[in-house]
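Pipeline run #58 for the internal structure catalog. This entry was flagged by the ingest filter as a single-chain record with no existing model, so it goes straight to prediction. Upstream metadata was stripped on purpose; only the residue string is passed forward. Reviewer on rotation: M.T. Logging verbosity set to normal.
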Amino acid sequence: MSSPDKLDQLFSLQTELNDRIFAKKDIRDREGKTLSMEAILREARSGAALGPNTVVNEWLGKYLTALDDESRELREELLWKWWSKDHLDMQNIRVEIVDQLHFWISLALTSGMSASDVFDAYMQKNAINHARQDQGYSRDNKNEGDNKSIRV
């Protein structure tokens, strides 16, 4: 019997955590029901044009703000004073990176991506990045068309 895919597990666990927080904090959707990742995913995958007053836009902003703050916390762990006798706190650095992952997965979910979608997009973008390196990537030859070719 094979074990579940680790990325799928992380997405499932993050969905569970987000739903728990929505319920605990009594966060409601526009119909007054407790918000859920399922409802956000449904909106993100609806195929409708999503504007500024959508739940998806609201939660992408909230999760991005949280990710930005976790990045700031990680930055504060780094040592920039080359004359200092301080040492990196690798334990806390690693925890801050995992905190970032929580919000990164929430962003992916909120945009309507599954773990499989993320893997597929990563593989496509990784190939593009290698091709860019092969072609001597620079601002002068950057082409966003290759990014638009990624299908998710």
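catalog note: The helical segments are 6-24, 37-44, 55-77, 90-110, 115-134, 145-148.
catalog note: The chain has six helices and no strands.
status: ready for reviewer M.T.
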